[in-house]
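Data card: per-record layout.
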Amino acid sequence: MKHIIRLFKLSKPWARYLVVSTIALLLISAINLTAPYLTSEVISIMESGAFRDSINKIVILALALLGCFALRAFFQFLNNYFAHVASWNLVAHLRGVLYSHFQKLSMRYYHDKQTGQLMSRVINDINTFENLIAHAIPDLVTNILTLIGVLVILLMINPVLLLLVCIPIPFIALLSVVLRKIRKYFRVGQAKIAELNAVLQDNFSGMKEIQVFNKQEYEAGRVAEKSVEHSTALIKALFYSGILNPAVNFISSTGTVIVLIAGPILALSTGLSISDVVAFLLYLNLFYAPISTLTRVVEDMQQALAGAERVFEVLDTEPDIKDSLNARKVGRLSGQVEFRNVSFSYSDDIPVLNDISFEIRPGQMVALVGPTGVGKTTISALIARFYDPDSGEILMDGINIKDMTLESLRNQLSIVLQDVFLFNGTIAENIAYGCSNATREQIEEAAKTACIHDFIESLPEKYDTVIGERGVRLSGGQKQRISIARSILRDSPILILDEATSAVDTETETEIQKALNKIAGTRTLIVIAHRLSTVKRADKILVLDNGRIVEEGNHEELLKLGGMYANLFNK
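The structure for this 571-residue chain is written out next.
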């Protein structure tokens, strides 16, 4: 129930549509209760034998009945349309809210999550809310109102007959225990479709690897397995629904048999008129129909609530990286960075950095070198506050980065990653991604600095070339240089290059080195590299091993030292 209340609170901006829909529902219920009465009045006239004298009255009653049906159709349109307006607006709004919340969660949250599973929460789980708002809850309200109204009318017609037709109700109530199983299987079904989405997303992204390693049959089997698991969960839920609905309908039908037997007996013993018996039968359909429909409505609600649980689970997840209460916006800084006794681990038993301390002055080029897995990339992730250190402080221009807003902190940074990500758009759009108001001249200048301009100009559509998802139409080196151009154009005081030349050839690496030489001194450069030719001109080189800084100095100083850096360089 708390999830439904929460959904309606989120629907507040579209409350006016829900109000119109609710009023239409009330009027539909009133018309449904009026139609049998008008029918019974016609039968009563015929029963009285005054048919010839009351032909005008019968015509009026028939026209009134036709008017009721016309009004019901109109109000059904109002209810259906405005309920859908509210529900689809809620779905769109919640998708935006959920996606925005995903963006607030730190990288740690995504360690054990698959993209397809997260997409399923945004698409499939939220889709169930439309059915809840536009169908399940309106049907629930209509049926409850109709049931109450019919009970009152049947009580007025004949209380004894009403008691008799209530005999099947306890048996219908007993069947409701089956509903407990339905929600469980719908929840499993929602989880299984998320797993299927995750496998599909991975496979579409890795289609080249699937084909080159001849894993088509294996991956097809995985997709089929996930599809079957999803279908199996839904089939189990529908099995119980399949038992429940026919059983409810059968038990409800026994009420009609009861009236057909008890009606004539009561007519003989109490003088119950034929028109009252007919009216009772007409209202009896309205009496049992809500009970039968309620089972389907509850089933729909169970499915929607299973989706709601998964959506609100994400929304209730607090970001572990967020602005502190006293966080403040800062303008452009000079680019000074300091680590003070910083330690960090991704998990409790595996330390990555141990008591790291160093300082980078504004405009310096500092290189981080060392074997794979010693924490070089982790240092750049900590500077960007993708994670917070377990202990120690990180400062920019003497300000603890936790005391800055995340937005203003990240405005100080541009990062070129080893695993370049480009969006499915034009080359110009990708270069200007971090600087949306950039002119074409500025974009081209950044591309020239990154040594990619000549290649772009050789393309038929030049800077308007669409590069495909993740830049699939470009080579690794081309993607990396576009990423470098993107970071250069942003013109932030700190530029981090994490293995930025790993996918380029020696000639291109030389060109990029020339580009870095152009911007050296204009901003702080932090370079992570295995190719030591990339870091030779760095003002300071930090050599890491086992999560600690074991050597520090420039290229010549470290070579003279004859330690780890000299060994790496000689190799």
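Known properties of this structure: The chain has two domains: 2-315, 337-570. The domain at 337-570 is CATH 3.40.50.300 (Rossmann fold).

See the next section for split statistics.
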